[in-house]
């Protein structure tokens, strides 16, 4: 026991798609192991929209201390660097008080910023992030990235290609956020973003995907479910949100924060809480007050269908990130992931809670868990950022896997058939008719 007490508290990270029960497991582990929960959700940091962002209830927050929830005004800009700086301070305080920090949330790049040293810092008169200007930077505008994102895609990409061709080669010209981010880093640090990322990879403990692990031996649990079951659960979740007052919440929020922006034609569903899943899907409905009831009912039905569709798409994206970031990229700076099957919620205690408890108990004792971590077949030579241009479809494709998928896609096959048809037609038209010159039998 004394040996276990002397070991550092492990950082627990609960991964999984939306609707898998991450918050439930976090609460149960937090209460059992005197842990505190740190939300890693880019929308839950804002006040309001509690239903659509699926925040834990005030009652649940009373059961276990929660951090990083509902502390920001909806109009305040909050970056991943802001999150990292605040959350790391919270985690340090939890560990200092001999408690276990439990990270739970669905924003993958927030979790990534805590697990690995992957964000670029500037070093001008001190250390600060590449977005945070509290110490000093080469540009004075507090929203430089957002300013850059207002530029045309082609202009933005052209600028990056001029100052950091290596980074431009890895990014899609239409990925405004990443292109703007790389340009911003260059403007503030004076060094190409690609060079800084390469330095991170080459640091001690670094790897192909970035810098070293920030915490030794984190305990990572992945909640996963069969897709058809998860899809049904997500549809039901949307229905439950509606029953809990989702439309009233959206209407109230729209009146408070969004109506004026729309009137000024300055609405932006790409930043802050306005990008949360569910808000933009109901835009047409929320702005249709002057329409007849039949039209509004139709727009409401469309909004609900869109919300269900985008929620399922987001869940797939979350699971894909776990597979690609952890399971298909093994290495010294990639921690093991322990899977928990949440397909049958009636078996929660046997399939989820008890296995999670045993895994965490092993970590606390400094032992290897009896259960094996998840593994997955992968192609070690696969290029995640290899760039190809499909001239036939006029598309830029990044990644070997994405390129293979594109070649099999209906869109590519359609253009391929059109090309072959055109070539056949051209060949027929251009071939001279030589039948007149063939000698005839007399």
What topology emerges from the helices and strands here?
Blueprint: H1 2-6, E1 12-16, H2 22-32, E2 35-39, H3 58-63, E3 66-67, H4 80-96, E4 100-104, H5 108-115, E5 121-123, E6 127-129, H6 144-149, H7 153-163, H8 165-170, H9 176-189, H10 193-202, E7 219-224, H11 227-243, H12 246-263, H13 283-286, H14 293-327, E8 337-341, H15 348-365, E9 387-390, E10 395-398, H16 400-408, H17 410-430
Helix pairs in contact: 4-5, 7-9, 11-14
What does this structure look like?
This protein has 442 residues and is an alpha/beta fold. The protein contains 17 helices and 10 strands. It has helices at 2-6, 22-32, 58-63, 80-96, 108-115, 144-149, 153-163, 165-170, 176-189, 193-202, 227-243, 246-263, 283-286, 293-327, 348-365, 400-408, 410-430, and strands spanning 12-16, 35-39, 66-67, 100-104, 121-123, 127-129, 219-224, 337-341, 387-390, 395-398. The strands form 3 sheets. Strands 3-2-4-1-7-8 form a 6-stranded parallel beta sheet, with helices on both faces. It is globular. Residues 1-5, 122-142 and 434-439 have low confidence and may be disordered.
Can you write the helix and strand succession as a string? HEHEHEHEHEEHHHHHEHHHHEHEEHH
- Unreliable segments of 5+ consecutive residues: 1-5, 122-142, 434-439
Q: Please compute the radius of gyration using only Cα atoms.
A: 26 Å
Strand content: 5-15%
How much is the average pLDDT?
A: 84
Distance between the termini: 111 Å
The total of helices stands at 17
SSE class: alpha/beta
**Helical content, roughly?**
40-55%
């Amino acid at each position: 026991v004394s040996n276990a007490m002397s070991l550092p508290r492990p950082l627990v990270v609960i991964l999984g798609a939306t609707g898998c029960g991450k918050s439930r497991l976090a609460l149960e582990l937090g209460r059992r192991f005197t842990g505190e929960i740190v939300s890693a959700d880019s929308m839950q940091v804002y006040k309001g929209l509690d239903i659509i962002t699926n925040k834990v209830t005030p009652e649940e927050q009373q059961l276990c201390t929660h951090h990083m929830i509902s502390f920001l005004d909806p109009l305040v800009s909050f970056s991943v660097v802001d999150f990292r700086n605040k959350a790391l301070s919270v985690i340090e305080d939890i560990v200092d008080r001999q408690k276990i920090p439990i990270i739970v949330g669905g924003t993958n790049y927030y979790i990534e910023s805590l697990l690995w040293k992957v964000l670029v810092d500037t070093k001008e008169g001190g250390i600060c992030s590449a977005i945070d200007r509290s110490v000093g930077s080469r540009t004075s505008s507090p929203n430089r990235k957002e300013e850059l994102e207002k530029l045309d895609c082609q202009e933005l990409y052209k600028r990056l290609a001029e100052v950091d061709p290596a980074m431009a080669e890895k990014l899609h010209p239409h990925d405004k956020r990443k292109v703007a981010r790389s340009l911003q880093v260059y403007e503030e640090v004076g060094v190409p973003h690609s060079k800084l990322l390469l330095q991170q990879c080459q640091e001690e403990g670094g790897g192909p995907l970035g810098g070293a692990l920030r915490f030794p031996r984190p305990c990572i649990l992945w909640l996963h479910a069969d897709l058809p079951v998860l899809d049904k659960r997500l549809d039901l979740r949307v229905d439950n949100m509606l029953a809990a007052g989702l439309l009233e919440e959206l209407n109230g929020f729209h009146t408070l924060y969004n109506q004026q922006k729309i009137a000024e034609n300055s609405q932006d569903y790409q930043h802050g809480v306005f990008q949360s899943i569910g808000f933009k899907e109901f835009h047409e409905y929320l702005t249709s007050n002057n329409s007849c009831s039949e039209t509004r009912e139709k727009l409401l039905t469309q909004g609900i269908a869109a919300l269900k569709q985008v929620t399922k798409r987001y869940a797939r994206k979350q699971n894909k990130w776990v597979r690609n970031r952890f399971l298909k990229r093994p290495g010294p700076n990639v921690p093991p992931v322990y899977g928990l099957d949440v397909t049958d919620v009636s078996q929660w205690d046997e399939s989820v809670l008890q296995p999670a408890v045993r895994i965490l108990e092993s970590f606390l004792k400094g032992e290897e868990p009896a259960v094996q971590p998840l593994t997955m077949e992968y192609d070690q030579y696969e290029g995640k950022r290899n760039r190809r241009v499909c001239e036939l479809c006029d598309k830029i494709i990044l990644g070997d896997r994405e390129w293979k998928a594109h070649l099999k896609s209906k869109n590519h096959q359609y253009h391929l058939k059109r090309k072959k048809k055109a070539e056949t037609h051209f060949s027929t038209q251009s071939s001279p008719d030589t039948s007149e010159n063939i000698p005839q039998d007399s």
